[in-house]
Amino acid sequence: MSTNLKLKGNWNELKGKLKAKYGELTDDDLAYAEGQEDQLIGRLQKKTGAAKEDLEKMLFAEEDRR
Question: From the record, what ranges are coiled-coil (predicted)?
Fold first, then answer.
């Protein structure tokens, strides 16, 4: 799966959605570098307590982008 392209393409929009859903997130929590999806998900899990699968679905699922 080409997660890098999907995440990179709408990253600003996704950051806004994550901040709206999890108000405790900071810009540092949402720092993303291409190829470091696992680190990003780990930071989000630690900060929010959300399940990895839920975060991956939010970040990478095509249907959530519309």
Answer: none
